[in-house]
Design goal:
This protein has two domains: about 120 residues, NAD(P)-binding Rossmann-like Domain (Rossmann fold), CATH 3.40.50.720; about 190 residues, NAD(P)-binding Rossmann-like Domain (Rossmann fold). Helix content is about 35%, strand content about 15%. The strands form two sheets. Strands 8-7-6-9-10-11-12 form a seven-stranded parallel β-sheet, sandwiched between helices. Helix 4 crosses helix 6. The chain has about 325 residues and is α/β, with parallel strands linked by helices. The two termini are about 20 Å apart. Helix 2 links the parallel strand 3 and strand 4.
Length: about 325
Amino acid sequence: MKTLIYSAKDFEIPYLEKANQNTHTLHFTPERLTTHTAMKAVGYDAISIFSADDASPNVLEKLKAFGVSYITLRSAGYDNVNIFKAQKLGLHVANAADYSPHAIAEHAITLLLAINRKIIVANKQVQQYDFTLSNLVGIDLKGKTIGIIGTGRIGAVIIKILHGFETTIIATDIAQNEDLIHNFGVTYMPLQELCKQSDVVILSVPLNAETHHLMDKETLAYMKPSAYLINVARGAIVDTKAVLESLNTNVLKGYATDVYAHESGIFFYDRSSAKPNDLLLDQLLQHPNVILTPHQAFATQEALTNIATTTMENLTSWEQGKTPKNELT
């Protein structure tokens, strides 16, 4: 199947080529899928996109007109794809649902440990030969209450890791996971109560109409002033302005995130010589109580291997007239 890979990164191309084994005809472009770049898909049966690509209704209409029939995502999340419109147009869409919840979960714990134990601050200090500890005091995680918002594949792994720290784990989700309740002592409760009790809140929910700005000014007000917020989900799940205000008014102690609501066109690119005009991003980067990583949680060898394998499996299933297990339409 002739396939155009949008947003192709140099580090992922070898994994995609190895998984393909010359089965499909692949072409790569570093450009994102947008209304302006959809024209590149003329003559292709399928495209592959990433989380920063735009598969909104207008773009999907163009892709359909250009002859594209299949869209395979190199991500688990698909909030950037208008699934309803894709179905209406007869476009087949599949994601990479199970590529590596461990990669994301482990990065969540990395962010938590880094912000709690002041690793970034410590590294900057010692580079200046400042070996004092006054700014480096953290807390033991043992005995603390950790709130997990979203206990799906990623949230469940986060809970299993945190169980080893001897923390008290509470959670909220639209469906309760009985295994987590019985084997890891998880207690489910409403969001507001979770925020009140938690020393740390970790976000691991998909972005949709219900979760957009889930952590807004009102919700953040329920959190302890000593609490940390960790986000490995999607940037728009938090109201970034509200988070910054909470940090500046001591409503919240710290925010560590791998995602940003307006990351499209910024993350995954070297913008050092052409810095984006984004005041909100500047405020995040400059805030002493914020750690921001560039949407790297998925970037492990194992996850990239699994994403590439699933991408090719989706294409092969379609070519053979079958329905991939990850099909969303």
